Amino acid sequence: MPLNRSPVIPAVPAIVCAVAVATATACAPSQSAAASASQGATTVAAPPVATARTAGTGSTTGAPGIGDPDFPGDGNGGYDVEHYDLTLSYDPASRNLAGSTTIRAKATQDLTSFDLDLHGLTVSRVTVDGAAATFDRQDDELVVTPAGRIADGGKFAVTVDYSGVPQSLRSASLGEYGFIATPDGAFVTCEPNGAKTWFPANDHPADKATYDFQITVPAGLTAIANGELSGTPRTTAGKTTFVWREKHPMASYLATMTTGKFQVRTGTSGGGLPIYAAVADSFRGSLDTLITQTGKITDYWSSVFGPYPFSSTGGVIDDHAVGYALENQTKPIYGGFTPEPAIIAHELAHQWFGDSLSIGRWRDLWLNEGFATYAEWLWAEHNGQGTADATFRRYYANEADAMWSYPPGVARSDDLFNAAVYTRGAMTLHALRREIGDQRFFPLIRQWTAAHRYGNVTTPEFVALAERVSGKNLKPLFDAWLFRPGRPAPVA
Ligand SMILES: [Zn+2]
Question: Which residue range or ranges hold the Aminopeptidase N-like N-terminal domain (predicted)?
């Protein structure tokens, strides 16, 4: 996700400027847009602290949090989701969403009750393996008590029927996210924990799963989700149903059901990958460029980062100006602006760094954003618009930059998307590249994406692999760049 990052240093050359211009003019939320967007959004003051029902040893109560110290209420314990089956019907006129979600999961302990995350909406019925279950709502936790105990290791299916007007979320460092109603549909971007605004979930990237979507909207609208369309959308009685399938594991925040009036084009990249591009009517002039650049950049990253992890690539431009883009799996979404190639390069790099390889705790966010920002520099280098080394040196020269006092290796819940995670994270990778050389650095990146494809990753795992590939002790380098305040010593 690139967003309204802090001001770029003065006298920036072409490529950094291109990103900055896009950020300043198109990506940055205007005050009025931000103000109007806030209506109906739920302000998130602080992550809920899960203390009331914390499961102890031997407990058969699934914990209300998955164990992320910075987001203690996010996700849940006691089970691992394998698949989400989402049946959804959305009516933009009334803003009502009716849903039935079936989650196939495996218990990781004996369970007499467990939680799902769900924000607002009214639950009408819950079943576990077809039998009625009792349920309770406690803030954003949906507590499910099945009729019988689920044994450790047992597989089960929980179905939740629900409806209501989804309420988006708001955070200080990001703005509005989750299910955001628009005049013609919905703009759905869920990082970090907004999936719960439209379906019950284990809403944390540590629990990835595959997804089936069956989304019904008024005829004439398009519903866009992840993965690929199954068959041709069917229209009956004035409503059209779109069936999408993401057969590769996905973090919940990357799921989308963006809907509205869209111009859609499909194609194939030079490398043979299917592409799906969609733009709101007011961006129809950007459709050609979006599909062309998306194919070209996906193919290029496949040669740099390793094989593309998914079955299709794509992009969506909606006319809702949230002030950021998000790397929704297989289809990054651009919120109300035509993306510069650098931004497309950033979002598509996330398909490897964030989507295929997902963080297991939010403090490792630099593994997503540092890599995607560094990809912007690599894209510029590839296009002869200045080397990554030159970009690195320009940032390094600015001693007054706030990122020096803000180590990126410990992203905080109250300021998750801070500039250090992006820029200093990218600089960390460049410092590593200088230290171990291109002949080790790029194979390291490909080994990283291959070893953890579709999985979860942590910073210590990356440091360990970098040391293994290079045969060097790199702890001082990573310590200085990621974990200590202050500007690290110059790189050689
Ligand atoms: Zn990003």
Answer: 82-254
